[in-house]
Design goal:
The chain contains eleven helices and 14 strands. With 316 residues, it is an alpha/beta fold. Strands 3-4-5-6-7-8-9-10 form an eight-stranded parallel β-barrel, surrounded by six helices. Strands 1-2 form a two-stranded antiparallel ribbon. A two-stranded antiparallel sheet has the order 11-14. Bound molecules: iron/sulfur cluster (2 copies).
Length: 316
């Protein structure tokens, strides 16, 4: 599979980055052993880049997959921690959780955070910088859906890697247009930041436009990797073959899972927590004070699932 160099980090990673969110408890919730097998299969097929997060709760799955192999992929993780102490906890959790000696990329997990991120989460950034000096973290990144924050990352010398959201439909982009996001990412690339893209398939919602969506993401630059969340060997094989140039795969593709994020109306207490957590503006409250998800705006990120205190939201 084609490899790209992630900016000035020097990391040579595959064009596909294996996204771990969908197989974890926020989404498909595969058994740990099954998820580890799917991930390991992707690594067997040549993928050498993994993306996860403290919030995804997939460290056990990754640890199990890595335990069975000699090669070591590049792993990116992230945390929403704001304070120094909380980020320190997140770093230790990642090291122990995945059983690794260092962390290749550690992002400030910043979905819809604004350009004040570096001020608001100064403590967390200082912690990442300290651990980078110690060699525990190799590079620091920002994962974001926000065009203005991507622009700000271009001029921030502390940031080595940017993980921005972009797709051909603009689904999930905040604070700007698709074109503005494209330009902001390009600016980061010119400044030597490593780039890999998030939600090229709109979190699975653009699966019926697979070819067009992937072509759009792949044509943005020769230097970007693309994170793709995968939950089955079949899906992994389809994506790997596609990225290796075998585009005529209609006969084997069965990766249209038709999954959607759903609120159980009987369980919802009307607390509105999910409305604030959704960065895509997909959740509103109905007349009956129950939350409602507009599927045309949902990018299936799972953040509302994690936030709901009543466990009323599920990926089905
Ligand atoms: S967070 Fe859960 S309980 Fe609260 S409004 Fe949303 S779905 Fe309902
Ligand atoms: S409704 Fe939930 S899963 Fe969908 S975009 Fe909003 S937070 Fe993400």
């Amino acid at each position: 599979m084609k490899k790209v160099i992630l900016g000035n980090t020097g990391y040579e990673v595959t064009e596909i980055c294996f996204g771990c969110l969908p197989f974890g408890p926020l989404q498909k919730n595969l058994p740990v052993e099954e998820a580890a097998e799917v991930l390991s299969y992707g690594l067997d097929l040549g993928i050498n880049f993994i993306d996860t997060a403290q919030m995804y709760k997939t460290y056990d799955h990754i640890k199990l997959a890595l335990a069975k192999r000699k090669d070591k992929p590049i792993i990116a993780t992230k945390s929403t921690a704001a304070a120094y102490e909380d980020m320190e906890i997140a770093i230790k959790e990642a090291l122990e959780g995945m059983g690794v000696e260092h962390l290749d990329i550690f992002h400030l997990h910043s979905a819809k955070a604004g350009t004040d991120l570096f001020e608001v989460r100064k403590g967390a950034l200082e912690c990442l910088k300290d651990y980078k000096k110690k060699g525990v973290i190799k590079t620091i990144g920002v994962s974001t859906h926000n065009v203005k924050l991507v622009e700000a990352c271009a001029d921030n010398d502390d940031i080595d890697v940017v993980f921005p959201l972009i797709n051909k439909a603009g689904r999930g982009i905040i604070n700007g247009t698709i074109e503005e996001m494209k330009n902001a990412i390009s600016k980061c690339e010119q400044k030597g930041k490593g780039i890999y893209l998030m939600k090229a398939l709109g979190g699975g919602t653009l699966i019926d436009d697979y070819e067009e969506s992937m072509s759009y993401a792949r044509n943005l630059s020769d230097n970007y990797s693309i994170a793709i969340g995968m939950i089955s060997k079949e899906e992994v094989l389809y994506n790997v073959k596609y990225f290796n140039g075998e585009h005529d795969l209609d006969g084997i593709i069965k990766i249209r899972n038709c999954k959607k994020v759903n609120v159980s109306q009987n369980v919802c207490t009307g607390c509105k927590t999910c409305v604030d957590k959704c960065h895509s503006g997909a959740i509103s409250m109905g007349d009956d004070n129950k939350s409602f998800i507009d599927q045309s705006k949902c990018i299936q990120c799972g953040y509302c699932i994690a936030a709901c205190p009543a466990f009323a939201i599920r990926m089905i």
